[in-house]
Design the sequence.
């Protein structure tokens, strides 16, 4: 139904190449997340798929059909925008009904579909309100409602949760994941938040400066990052990088160790250091330790540990979990 | 957010405005330049001929011209000074808590909506007239000799009238800007030990700078071309005491029918305005960027 | 505004502000009062403020002697006509510049603004001669055309700043939802743009109503709007203060009321959106 295939797609604004030629395949029913720092081209890539921007070169096929020159509305896609882009002068009902009205459906059909969408999204009580009178989470639901009534072959989400507070973000994340499981429709989701990418995606596409750094499942990227950029971007707290003699001893320009792969001991270990900050979260403890040999490292320890700022401790990396990178930042396997 | 198609459509939609404004600017201006090199009097159309720079020489050596430039600048500077200082003071006052603030606002901005000819006539006859004017009556009431505004201080009288019309504008804009000042900033400054004057100097005034820039720009556009107020009150006189460039060109063209001379004056006015505009546009360009 | 202010302070500010407000408003108030006096009372010394024989005869007299209604209608036709034509030309331009900005859009806007900098005397002579040759002098049509052109930059700018506030994402959402250009304009853009267009209309009617360079130079008896008609009172004709006041009151009343309603938009409009 909703496969999306990009072949050598390129976008140039004036003399600036925003996206160098890219190849990408998103399978039908897949939840694909484009993730990367701001300005990496992830939103542009989404807008190319949506048809809101022309591709400078290359072809975009949707559902097996060449859609490169199709108008946005003809591509059978729905989009949820960062600002939700609700029509402020229309009620929630009219907002959700708008795409159906544009498609020329009979009023009875429109009513039935709007009702069904409102039930799915718990919006039944708000149908006659204006967007202004809704909370951020409710607006988000209306935007999703407007997207699902069209029964598109794929959904596009452009950083839909970035305007919500932290608690609501976690809840909406769950709701979107559930929606995907229920509808089984292809979803393409853009975010700068790697946690959203890790928790929601079937397939993550990591972008940096317009280029695709790596494509894979969340755990693939976590376990086997292709390069330093992906290694540093995926995972929280960030991976520690150590260069110099220590890395050379492992035959690499840089080695990376995730915070959970470092052990702390008061008595013995590889690197001696001083605790700069200890963050006690209850379930975990994050230690920032300035080591004498390997610079400042972040360490994650499960549960509570009785250490304090200023303590001298030893840090030992788990040798089996090292990531090695060459002088160009490419992973050595 | 653009595609080839929509960009082409956009150019088409902008075209009428651009073409009309271009024609409105270029065609008459070119004609003015052309006329300014001619001997061209509407009363003697037969004598029309090319005379090069004579009109300019004539115009630029005319003492009335220098008086007019000086008067033009005095009007701009005088009115700007009164309206900006007065506007800041009024805005600060109106920003205070008081009863009936909305009504006071209406009273203060009202003069801006009075058409120039009406305000000029009302001031001329009912206030500044040395016999029947209210100001003369006030002076007599306190035992002074009535002042003949339009005969003895005509330019000052014009400045007063124009300033009365523009003070509301400056006040309204500065008040709007003042009300957008973040209250927390003021409180932070107060906690930092800044007194009322220091707060005004270092917090309020910088915040108002953008609004002040805008007021200067807009008012200058209009003040360079003050016309109706002069026509109705003093007719440029006595002599050339209250003639500005706009009025001088009008008099040359439509009273003396000297198209050539008036055109030369018009070009001089355009050059003058461009010099002023050059600095102003840079100012507002920067302001609008932010 | 959590600042506590004593009642005394508040009363002080109130008195001062009302004093200044009345002082600035006084010329208008005085004009209105004078319009209800007889000519003799209008120049009486000491002047009478409220206790005079109120009369309406000046109003009927003004209409009777000079066909006031015609000049009033001239003002209405010219100011409304020039604004509406200006809007018809400017709406597409502002729309395109706000939603399809090109590299030169900013320059184009600044250029339009700069045309306002040109002093009208720079083009007075040729415009006067062209109008004379086309027999447009002293016609409503001629004046409407001129006011349309001098107001066009302000109209474009105002609309542009209003349109800029409509998020582009909403129009893109409409496009994704299957709306064609026409549906986009009718169902989405227009409902959101109407308040801005209305403000622009209001402010430009006010500006055109009070325009007093071209109206004075390009009209005579026939097409003269109120600005030019009132100016004809400057020629001395004996005792005329009361009638002048009546004519003035009628000329400024409608626009004063419109203006009071449009305070907010006025600031925005006249500062090209730089101050809101």
Sequence:
């Amino acid at each position: 139904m909703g496969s999306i295939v990009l072949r050598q797609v390129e976008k140039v604004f004036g003399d600036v190449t925003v996206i160098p030629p890219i190849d990408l395949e998103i399978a039908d029913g897949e939840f694909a997340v484009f993730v990367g720092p701001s300005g990496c081209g992830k939103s542009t890539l989404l807008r190319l798929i949506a048809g809101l921007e022309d591709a400078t070169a290359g072809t975009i096929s949707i559902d097996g059909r060449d859609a490169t020159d199709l108008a946005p509305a003809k591509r059978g896609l729905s989009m949820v925008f960062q600002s939700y882009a609700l029509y402020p002068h229309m009620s929630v009902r009219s907002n959700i009904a708008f795409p159906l009205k544009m498609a020329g459906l009979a009023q009875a059909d429109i009513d039935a579909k709007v009702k069904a969408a409102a039930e799915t999204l718990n919006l039944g009580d708000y149908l006659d309100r204006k967007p202004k009178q809704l909370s951020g989470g409710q607006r988000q639901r209306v935007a999703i409602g407007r997207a699902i009534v069209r029964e598109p072959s794929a959904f596009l989400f452009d950083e839909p949760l970035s305007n919500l507070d932290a608690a609501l973000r976690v809840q909406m994340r769950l709701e979107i994941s559930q929606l995907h499981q229920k509808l089984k429709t292809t979803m393409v989701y853009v975010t700068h938040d790697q946690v959203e990418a890790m928790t929601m995606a079937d397939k993550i596409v990591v972008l940096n400066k317009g280029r695709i750094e790596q494509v894979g499942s969340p755990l693939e990227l976590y376990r086997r990052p292709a390069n330093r950029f992906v290694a540093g971007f995926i995972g929280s707290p960030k991976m520690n990088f150590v260069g110099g003699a220590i890395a050379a001893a492992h035959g690499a320009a840089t080695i990376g160790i995730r915070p959970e792969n470092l052990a702390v001991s008061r008595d013995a270990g590889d690197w001696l250091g001083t605790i700069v900050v200890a963050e006690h979260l209850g379930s975990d403890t994050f230690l920032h330790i300035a080591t004498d040999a390997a610079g400042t490292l972040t360490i994650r320890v499960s549960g509570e540990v009785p250490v304090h700022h200023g303590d001298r401790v030893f840090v030992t990396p788990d040798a089996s979990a090292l990531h090695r990178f060459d002088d160009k930042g490419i992973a050595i396997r | 957010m653009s595609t080839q198609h929509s960009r082409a459509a956009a150019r088409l939609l902008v075209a009428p405005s651009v073409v009309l404004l271009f024609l409105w600017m270029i065609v008459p201006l070119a004609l003015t330049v052309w006329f300014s090199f001619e001997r061209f009097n509407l009363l003697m159309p037969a004598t029309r001929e090319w005379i090069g720079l004579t009109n300019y020489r004539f115009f630029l050596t005319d003492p009335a011209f220098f008086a007019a430039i000086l008067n033009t600048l005095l009007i701009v500077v005088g009115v700007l000074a009164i309206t900006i200082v007065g506007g800041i003071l009024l805005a600060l006052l109106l920003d205070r808590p008081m009863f009936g603030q909305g009504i006071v606002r209406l009273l203060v901005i009202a003069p801006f909506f009075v058409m120039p000819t009406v305000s000029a006539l009302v001031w001329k006859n009912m206030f500044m007239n040395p016999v029947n004017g209210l100001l003369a009556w006030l002076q007599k009431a306190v035992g002074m000799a009535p002042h003949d505004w339009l005969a003895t201080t005509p330019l000052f009288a014009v400045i007063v009238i124009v300033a009365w019309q523009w003070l509301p504008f400056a006040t309204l804009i500065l008040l709007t800007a003042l009300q957008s000042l973040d209250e927390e900033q003021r409180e932070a400054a107060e906690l930092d030990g800044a007194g009322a004057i220091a707060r005004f100097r270092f917090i309020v005034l910088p915040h108002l700078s953008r609004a002040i820039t805008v007021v200067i720009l807009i008012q200058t556009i209009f003040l360079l071309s003050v016309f109706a107020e002069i026509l109705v009150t003093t007719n440029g006189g006595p002599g050339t005491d209250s003639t500005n460039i706009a009025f001088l060109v009008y008099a040359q063209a439509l009273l003396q029918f000297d198209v050539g001379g008036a055109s030369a004056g018009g070009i001089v006015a355009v050059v003058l305005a461009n010099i002023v505009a050059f600095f102003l546009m840079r100012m507002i360009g920067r302001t609008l960027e932010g | 505004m959590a600042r506590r202010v004593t009642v005394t302070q508040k009363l002080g500010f109130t008195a001062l502000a009302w004093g200044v407000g009345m002082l600035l408003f006084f010329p208008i108030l005085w004009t209105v009062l004078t319009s209800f006096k007889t000519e003799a009372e209008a120049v009486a010394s000491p002047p009478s403020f409220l206790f005079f024989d109120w009369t309406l005869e000046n109003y009927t007299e003004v209409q009777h002697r000079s066909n006031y209604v015609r000049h009033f209608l001239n003002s209405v036709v010219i100011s409304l006509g020039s604004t509406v034509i200006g809007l018809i030309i400017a709406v597409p331009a502002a729309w395109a510049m706000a939603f399809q900005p090109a590299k030169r859009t900013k320059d184009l806007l600044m250029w339009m603004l700069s045309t306002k900098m040109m002093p009208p005397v720079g083009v007075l002579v040729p415009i006067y001669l062209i109008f004379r040759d086309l027999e447009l002098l002293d016609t409503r049509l001629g004046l409407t055309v001129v006011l349309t052109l001098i107001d066009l930059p302000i109209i474009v700018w105002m609309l542009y700043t209003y349109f800029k506030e409509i998020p582009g994402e909403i129009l893109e959402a409409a496009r994704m939802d299957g709306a064609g250009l026409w549906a986009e304009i009718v169902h989405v853009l227009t409902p959101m743009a109407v308040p801005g267009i209305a403000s622009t209309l209001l402010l430009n009617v006010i500006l055109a109503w009070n325009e007093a360079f071209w109206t004075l130079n390009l009209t005579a008896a026939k097409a003269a709007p109120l600005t030019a008609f009132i100016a004809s009172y400057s020629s001395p004709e004996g005792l005329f203060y009361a009638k002048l006041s009546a004519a003035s009151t009628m000329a400024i009343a409608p626009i004063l009321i419109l203006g009071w309603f449009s305070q907010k938009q006025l600031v925005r409009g006249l500062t090209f959106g730089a101050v809101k």
